[in-house]
Design goal:
The chain is of the alpha+beta class. It contains 12 helices and 15 strands.
């Protein structure tokens, strides 16, 4: 039986291939399916729609986007194993009509390369040498300083996706489904609700389904492309299923909402010397040159989103990068910004003053949950 580490290694090789190079959705959904395989979770179409695509709560409802994207992924894998991965010892398979993947040993005879005469091979050898030399010269010498800690230390990196807690049972329509109650954000709060409303014990129940929005998918795509460039990887985890023990084990990236994610708000408040998040307010104080101030960072407008981004030291010599906003466009815009080579270079030169950590506030504007403009409000290095 393959170990978790071996499965991650096999997947990493595929994600770095030319076949998957320009396929961010296939990259993200393959990571998701492999993680489900590692966790030995059975997947259904409705579960994938909720967990990966941020669909609505009816897990039994057919959704074509799941089938289409699984179909595309299956074709990508087939193309990979017919070209770059033809000699791979292990293959990832997704059977038709299924959503769970499996790892299958390739027992076919390894194709032997045909011998060429020296005169035929020489031009190809020279061309390959020229291309390799060019690529080596084009490679960056070191990762951007903002991210260097993630790529240089000995710890693995976890991407914690901000998701929403919900519970199963009879919904307002009278049918069974999944309910999102903004006042109930954990199992403890769910059971507290049952103590206050014991009649709900007969009509509701805990569930393993969680809700994530478009910000999670887009952040995963941008970060996956960025990490792949530096031959690094990360694991994706849901924030509502995360404990401080999980956070303590490795480097942390959080991409999610300001609301409800108490563990990551706590981390932010503990590690920041000048900033504290309290509800929908960001308080700034005790800086030697900048006067104390408070900013309202919550927004009820879906076309305007205030985002808090903080790069901080973590426990046990780990690193943390936190992206908070109320709506999708804020996190989407800032993750895109901090995984772009040019914007990273400009931001570092303008704001960081050779300091490794910072907290920044941005204002993002957009339409139809797509970010169109990002404005820097405040940056404080430390």
């Amino acid at each position: 039986m393959l170990s978790k580490e071996k499965k991650v290694e096999i997947t990493g090789k595929i994600l770095k291939s030319e076949t998957f190079k320009n396929a961010p959705t296939s990259i993200a959904i393959l990571r998701y399916l492999v993680q489900a395989n590692i966790e030995e979770r059975d997947l259904k179409e409705g579960i994938i729609d909720i967990e990966f695509f941020g669909g609505k709560s009816d897990i039994d409802k057919s959704n074509p986007r799941v089938r289409v994207n699984i179909y595309n992924l299956r074709n990508k894998l087939s193309k990979y194993y017919n070209s770059e991965g033809v000699n791979d010892l292990w293959q990832i398979k997704i059977d038709k009509g299924q959503y769970d993947l499996r790892f299958e040993k390739n027992n076919k005879n390894i194709k032997k390369t045909t011998k060429r005469k020296y005169k035929q091979a020489l031009p190809y050898t020279l061309l390959a040498f020229t291309i390799c030399t060019f690529l080596v010269l084009q490679l960056p010498h070191s990762p951007p300083s903002i991210w260097k800690g993630f790529f240089k230390n000995k710890h693995a990196t976890n991407l914690f996706i901000g998701d929403a807690f919900g519970y199963g049972g009879i919904t307002i329509s009278g049918l069974r489904g999944w309910t999102r109650d903004f006042s109930i954000n954990s199992l403890d709060e769910y059971y507290d609700m049952l103590e206050e409303k014991p009649e709900l014990k007969l009509t509701t129940s805990p569930t393993d389904y969680f809700y994530s929005t478009r910000m999670a998918e887009n952040a995963t795509h941008d970060l996956a492309r960025f990490f792949t460039k530096w031959n690094k990887d990360f694991e994706i985890k849901y924030a509502t299923q995360t404990s401080f023990a999980d956070i303590k084990k490795g480097n942390t990236i959080y991409a999610g909402r300001l609301k409800d994610e108490k563990n990551f708000i706590y981390l932010f408040n503990e590690a920041n010397p000048h900033f504290k998040i309290e509800g929908r307010t960001l308080n700034f104080s005790n800086h030697p040159t900048i006067k104390d101030t408070s900013l309202t960072i919550g927004s009820f407008e879906t076309e305007l989103d205030y985002t808090v981004v903080s790069r901080m030291p973590g426990p046990n010599d780990t690193e943390q990068f936190l992206f908070f906003s109320d709506h999708d466009i804020g996190v989407m815009a800032t993750v895109e910004f901090f995984t772009n080579k040019d914007s990273l270079k400009s931001f570092t030169k303008k704001h960081l003053e050779d300091k490794p950590y910072f907290t920044a506030i941005f204002k993002a504007k957009g339409k139809e949950r797509i970010n169109l403009n990002l404005e820097t409000i405040m940056v404080v290095p430390f």
